[in-house]
Design brief:
By secondary structure, the chain is mostly helical. The chain has helices at about 1-5, 25-35, 40-45, 50-60, 70-85, 95-105. It starts with a helix and ends in a 5-residue tail after the last helix.
């Protein structure tokens, strides 16, 4: 399953993305695809396995609440991907800035 996401075969729905429609494994695969697709793994010298471990650790820090949950974090990451990739905002940023934005998006409500 994850391989297909890493190969960019996931539905990049842009603003219509609904994280609640995906399984836990699918959401992790989508996160990996986003980080890989925007060259974060290369910029930070991380393997896909390292990134997955990080994403799983972050998921564990989120509470099961109606909105500020891990689903919301994935949603924000995918919306940011839309802005950076589909609307070409990444062309104005350094790779470390892109990495910082995506990691911040993923972690922004941990512990709420």
């Amino acid at each position: 399953v994850m391989g297909s996401y890493l190969d960019s075969q996931w539905p990049a729905d842009g603003l219509a993305f609904d994280p609640w429609a995906y399984s836990r494994a699918a959401k992790q695969g989508i996160l990996l695809a986003v980080f890989k697709g925007l060259n974060v793994l290369t910029a930070l010298n991380l393997s896909a396995s390292n990134m997955l471990d990080f994403c799983l650790d972050i998921e564990a820090l989120y509470n099961e609440v109606p909105y500020h949950s891990f689903n919301h974090a994935v949603d924000v990451v995918v919306k940011l991907y839309h802005l950076l990739h589909d609307l070409h905002a990444a062309s104005y940023l350094a790779s470390y800035d892109i990495a910082a934005l995506l990691i911040s998006a993923l972690c922004h409500d941990c512990g709420h």
